[in-house]
Amino acid sequence: MVRETRLSREDLVLPLFVVPGTGVEKEIGSMPGVFQQSVDKATDTAIRARDLGIPAVLLFGIPEKKDAVGSDSARADGPVQTLVRSIGQAVPDLLVITDVCLCEYTDHGHCGLLDGQDVANDPTLEVLAQEALSHARAGADIVAPSDMMDGRVGRIRSVLDEEGFDHVAILSYAAKYCSGFYGPFREAAESAPQFGDRRAYQMDPGNAAEAMREIAMDLDEGADMVMVKPALPYLDIVRRAKDTFDCPVAAYQVSGEYSMIKAAARAGWLDEQRIVDETLLSIRRAGADFIITYFALSVAGRL
Ligand code: PBG
Predict the structure, then answer these.
(1) Of 16, 66, 101, which is best to mutate to test ligand 1, by the most ligand atoms within 8 angstroms of its C-beta?
(2) Domain ranges of the chain
(3) The whole model's pTM is what?
(4) Which residue, among 251, 253, 250, has the nearest Cα to 225 in the 3D structure?
(5) Within a 10 A sphere around the Cβ of 51, how many other Cβ atoms?
(6) Which of 80, 183, 196, 249 is 20 to 30 A distant from 22 in Cα terms?
(7) Cα(182) to centroid of ligand 1, in Å?
(8) How far is residue 197's CA from residue 177's CA, in Å, rounded to a whole number?
(9) Which helix (H) or strand (E) holds 12?
(10) Is 103's C-beta closer than 6 angstroms to any atom of ligand 1?
């Protein structure tokens, strides 16, 4: 009766990884229980999510081919765009959020276009905006840029507005740290950088005030909601964001957070359900309005 924070199914967002083909369902080695799926299988998972009371899914795509400039990122017939349309038909009441980034589409695995060994911020913006537009055209409700280029929220907002998609919202990965916890995701999205790292565009784990500046900039450029990522090692940032800004704050319990719990549970060292509930509750207590988590299906099934 006096409990201050509760976890409910409505707080959860389920990530999906979509690959070309049909009938494909391939488990990710470092993320037991998480799969790369073709559009047909991913649509079935989306229907399951909706039936369990989960309000939204977040889509990541792996293209047929990758190149230096991520040419396939804005194809109308790409796996993400096709899945957006398929979910729109099969489960129209499920919110569809799409991840907007180039690292899944570039052969070098970086989140933007390259100039020599460096990521070129400004030339990347137009490519991201076209990717976001292709998602909007397919019927995405919310686009979520995760690349961390400066100025991308503003560019995406103006392209969406010009093309008549002013109703499509932007969830910006505003405070995204350069984290070792993304390791398993890079297997899932086949997006590991082929050289160097992401320190030039993702945030230094030592910085908190900078996260507030990043969030302020993204809101200023038109973001409707902001995200802190990863979640558990950055609960202070979630709280500070919630106290500082009057907007919805999301937290992403990332792949490494998932794998860590799964591995310990498999070894019999931790009780998976207890730990999952405790971590998700702590993320909510820190101030997150909703949580992106690979545990969404299993937790919603229990709640
Ligand atoms: C793409 C992106 C990443 C994640 C979400 N979008 C990985 C990265 O920056 O390398 C990580 C999600 C996870 O670890 O679960 N830029």
Answers:
(1) 101
(2) 9-302
(3) 0.97
(4) 250
(5) 12
(6) 183
(7) 6
(8) 12
(9) strand 12-18
(10) yes
pLDDT in tens, 247-275: 999 999 999 999 999 999 999 999 999 99
Q: Which segments of 146-217 are extended strands (E)?
A: 169-176
63's CB contacts (< 8 A; 6+ apart) are 20, 72, 73, 75, 78, 79, 104, 105
Residue minimizing CA distance to atom 9 of ligand 1? 182
Domain 9-302: CATH superfamily, name plus number: Aldolase class I (3.20.20.70)
- CA–CA separation, 16 vs 84, rounded Å? 11
* Rounded-to-integer distance, Cα 136 and Cα 71, Å: 18
- Nearest-atom number in ligand 1 for the CA of 192 is 10
Q: What is the pLDDT of residues 89-109, one digit of tens each?
A: 999 999 999 999 999 999 999
> Residue whose CA is closest, atom 5 of ligand 1?
146
Handedness of CA 127, 120, 292, 165 (dihedral sign): negative
State which H helix or E strand residue 143 sits in. Answer: strand 142-145
Spatial separation of the C-alpha atoms in residues 208 and 230, rounded to whole Å: 13
The candidate with the shortest Cα–Cα distance to 92, out of 141, 20, 164, is 141
